[in-house]
Amino acid sequence: MTRFLVRRLLLTIPVLLGVATLVFSLIHLVPGDPVQAMLGDSASPQDIADLRGRLGLDKPLWVQYGAFLKGAVRGDLGSSLRTNQTVTSAILERLPATFELAVAAMCVAAAIAIPLGILAAVRAGTRVDYAATTLALVGISVPNFWLGPLLAIVFSIELGWLPVSGRGSAANLVLPALTLGAPLAAVLARMTRASVIEELRELYVLAARAKGVSFARAVLHHAFRNSLIPIVTVFGLQFGAVLTGAVITETIFAWPGVGRLLIQSIAFRDYPLVQGCILLIAVTYVAMNLLTDVAYGLLDPRIRFE
Amino acid sequence: MLRAGAVIVMLGVLAAVVGPFLTHVDPTAQNLALRLAGPSWAHPFGLDELGRDILARVLAGARISFLVGLTVVSVSATVGTLLGTIAGYFGGVVDDAIGRVIDVLLAFPGLLLAIALVAVLGPSLGNVLFALTVIGWVGYARLVRGQVLRAREFEYVQAARALGAPTARILWRHVVPTAIPAVVVQSTLGMAAAIIGEAALSFLGLGVQPPTPSWGTMLNGGRAHLLDAPHLTIFPGLAIAVLVLGFNFLGDGLRDFTDPKLKGKS
After folding, report:
1. Helix (H) or strand (E) holding A128
2. pLDDT tens, A241-287?
3. B203, burial (CB in 10 Å: exposed 0-12, middle 13-18, buried 19+)
4. Which residue, of A14, A127, B229, B243, has the greatest Cβ tally within 10 A?
5. pLDDT tens, residue by residue, A107-122
């Protein structure tokens, strides 16, 4: 197991280096002079020179790259051009909100998808299955930037049940979590259905039934438990979709998380903050994939020896 | 599912091609006196915040969606197939190099890299196409690499090699065709992803810029009028959802058709 862990960790290092390199190069992709773009056309030559010096853009590229990598490792990604707050503290301030939203969305997804997927699997080939499968495909097709406003129209504006924006109470969390969780629920329901169908065909389920185990128990205690490994894997891998979805969901519901911070910093051309947000989201995603892989290795010994 | 998807997509194509000619309404013409007016016989989808006909804009927006989908999918599929074939067939250092690039690009979830690229390059249709292609080719490359790894061991490929056929001919005639069905399925699902991607970027203000009608831009405009004019949000969103559903139905149906063993999976 240790060998598997070490190998998996070592494989992550070049990926993280590549991610950091890409994020570093973002500022150099700005057409024309990035400093001029950040400050606008009315900036004085002195202001431009000052900012260039502050961002280290007056130094050779390899020095800039080295300083960026060193800073990234130490958690020092410079400071926001707009608020002067350090990028790290600005992100850390918003991180709990994004984490709260992501966890709530994943809970919503699991609560919808697992019963739906099991139901579709048990009734495979029937109208119930067809309806559940179609519903899942509709869930994948409805974009969250439409679902969010629709939910707001129905539950906030028409019915007045839930607040339309902001963070604070549990009621504030409902609509953003539903918006973010729905597409994940659709993917997860399809995976649960396929995985449970596969397990239901296994002989051990037949043996359990032959021993007098009830159908519900055979499904829930035998087939479903064994189908959990691929479901958990997909759940972990979908965390990335949740992070990207959070950028849109937080913008719709004015949720004060990292996603909204990213979009706000893009609007203000606050490139150090843009780089920080992108780096954080990508590194979190890589870490989640690593954790999923490790969990998979723990659950299924065959993976460790491959 | 395949048939339902094909019908929806055909209707979408029809709406994009002939729709704007049927309405006889300029999608950019403003009528400020009737701004935010709800659906009526004269304007079935109502009017937006500048008094522009939403039906005309939805039909014109379909053209943008298809333009983005077709461009992104064709360039991504070509680049991905080429690089996936090279990586899978030649292996070694080339495979490693392409594999590392793919790993790094896959470390950015979903649209994040596209958002980052458009954020620095500036919002425009061209940059959206570029950004979606940068993230789009990876899926094709991985898929084709896997297919080619399998195909290069087939006996007829080994026979062609033993007979001295040039590598380019082996790849073109014997190896690449084995990956085509999978690429077609991926392209169909890729159309849905590209359409959603463009709409998402435009919704965030990073994509197609006003007054060009794009479904995402229209949804962005509707955000300020959820309370007084929900039709600004309902119709463009419905158009995206229906078209994307059509491509997803089609993709799923084609996958079941080309590989019946996968039926009901994924």
Report:
1. helix A127-141
2. 788 889 999 999 999 999 999 999 998 889 899 999 999 999 999 99
3. buried
4. B243
5. 999 999 999 999 999 9
Write out residues 48-87 of B within 8 Å (CB-CB) of A.
none
pLDDT in tens, B117-148: 999 999 999 999 999 999 999 999 999 999 99
Report how far residue B73's alpha carbon sits from residue B132's, in angstroms, rounded to the nearest whole number: 9
Q: Which of B113, B216, B248 sits opposite A137 (nearest CB)?
A: B248
List C-alpha distances in Å: A281 to A17, A70, B110.
15, 19, 11
CA trace torsion B235, A148, A166, A159 (10° rounding) = 70
Number of inter-chain CB pairs under 8 A, A vs B: 141
Whose tokens are 């831009």? That residue is: B217
Q: Which segments within A212-296 are labelled E, that is strand?
A: none
Instruction: State pTM to two decimals.
Output: 0.89
Determine the residue among A28, A146, A278, A285 to mutate to test chain B binding: the one whose Cβ has the most chain B Cβ atoms within 10 Å: A146
Q: Are A149 and A252 in contact (CB under 8 A)?
A: yes
Q: Strand, coil or helix: what is A60?
A: coil
pLDDT of residue A48: 87
